[in-house]
């Protein structure tokens, strides 16, 4: 029984037990720096870590890559630094511009196997996470969705109630009519 609930818990929380985890989404204002921290399982301590950007073709273009050591590596405005004590590496992108917004990956190179990858969306906008940006889907927060459901519910009720009443009266009228015609 306890084993079953443990298994259920493991299934519910896959992110907590996977070999590489990241923040998913990172927000930063233009001109500032974005910091991305990705955690990996202890056994990948000595593996090379990297940061790449998904291109329009769907490839992941390398931006920075460690050799597996803790030395920081910096290319242009992007740097990466591994920490073997915390089992995490930090990517920093400096002097952000709107064109830096996009989809990236934290990666851990695995010899002879598929690399570990976790997707990170970088959003560049002023005013923090709630500021409007060019991604329409992110503007559909839960409160506006609730409002939409509420409005469509009202429209549904408003439309259906008269229709239902009309149907009931129609059937009743036809019923009376057939009664009257059979009486004649
Ligand atoms: C790793 O993180 C720990 C705790 O913050 C820190 O003491 C240590 O200096 C870091 N190592 C490197 C190489 O940055």
Automatic annotation (TrEMBL):
Entry-linked Gene3D superfamilies: Immunoglobulins (2.60.40.10)
Subcellular location field: Membrane
Ranges for domain Immunoglobulin: 23-125
Major location (coarse): membrane
Keyword line: Membrane, Signal, Transmembrane, Transmembrane helix
Annotated signal sequence range: 1-18
One Pfam family linked to the record: V-set
Membrane spanning stretches: 147-171
The organism's place on the tree of life at top rank: Eukaryota
Full protein name: CMRF35-like molecule 7
Annotated source species: Pogona vitticeps
